[in-house]
Specification:
Residues 1-21, 407-426 are annotated as: Disordered. The chain is of the alpha/beta class and 426 residues long. The protein has helices spanning 4-14, 40-54, 103-117, 130-140, 153-157, 164-182, 193-203, 244-251, 271-281, 295-304, 319-326, 339-342, 357-368, 372-386, 391-402, 417-425, and strands at 26-30, 58-64, 71-77, 80-87, 89-91, 99-101, 121-124, 144-148, 187-190, 209-210, 230-235, 260-265, 287-291, 307-310, 331-334, 349-352. Strand 15, helix 12 (339-342) and strand 16 (349-352) form a beta-alpha-beta unit.
Amino acid sequence: MTSPDDQHLAKASSTTPSADTHKPLRVVIGADTFSPDVNGAARFAERLAAGLVRRGHDVHIVAPAGSRKFGTWKETHEGQTMTAHRLFSLRWYPHDWLRFAMPWSMRRNARKILDRVKPDVVHLQSHIVVGRGLSIEAERRGIRMVATNHIMPDNILDFTVIPKRTQEWLVRTQWAAARRVFDRAFAVTTPTRKAADFLEQFTGLTGVHAISCGIEAGQYTPSFEPRKRNTILFVGRITSEKQIDVLLRALTKLPKELDAHVDVIGGGDQAKNLEQLTQQLGIGDRVRFLGKVSDDEVKQAYTNATVFAMPSIAELQSIATMEAMASGLPVVAADAMALPHLVHDQVNGYLFEPGNVDALAERLATVLSASPEEYRRMQDASLELVSAHDIERTLDTFEALYRGEQVVDPTTERHTATADRQESRD
């Protein structure tokens, strides 16, 4: 049994920078959600893992199995091969696809994996099941840990069957659990400064790093050709905090001469409800629910769309919004959480008051009726602003943290030339 003094010494030694800053690392990434799941946390973990493999590191994923089959094998993600340790999992039925590893066996699984792999660093992607088990066992072994938070209260509550009167208690419990897990880490990160401030406020943590999830912008293709029709695109989970119903109601208020349509890509528990809403609103012929589609189909949808809409109130960054910007799309987004970090009002699109249907309709109409010159200006601004979120900068920063180095958070708030001109006029 490890004594408290031994544990303290082990944690202290885990923060000592590695001597060889060029030596490939053996990295364990622990996640409660990972491919084939489709959500921001899973996409970040997948891109991070692939980027690390591409740089020569040995990456091991610890995540729930996506089916009844579990064990250790090789998986390929974004063209890179890594080792996956898939844990026995059960379906969480309030959600349409989410699966969880068993909490009571997680520490045993963590012990086996860590003793076999002997990683240089463990990167936790959550505090719930996988992250908690790995954090306890990694601390006992003096293994350096980095933790990234992707959780918002709305994300937790959306799939529970707990009565409303007890949800406040659940939120407090979750933040307390997050504090216990993240306290074991050498460094704690989250995608934006707004999200970092939010995490510090609700957990009492300090020194949380703001590190963008990053994006490989070159994988996306902007189109500067005139649009054949006005298509408003949404990509993401179809859940209540995304407020897709606000977008659908806004569509009914757009001028008929704009002939606007909405394409919704993604899956989620609200899909059937929203399909029924389109019929009630009389817009069934102008809305397509495309479900989960391939990466290539998503990229083509970005290229073909006219404007990207993100009405969500619970985004810690929004990878989908970054993908849209990398595709040269103007964006209309809710003025909530971290979205204003990406969408600069009147620069690469517009912000609107969360939940305000009329305001969203007005902003969408402004983009859809913009002159070719004004529309191109917003496209160029999106491309310029998203360049600050280059995945290589994200990988550089995480590599430094993995080696125990102190880092300066990358600057992702970039003013475009258009914004500078606007400020000078003001």
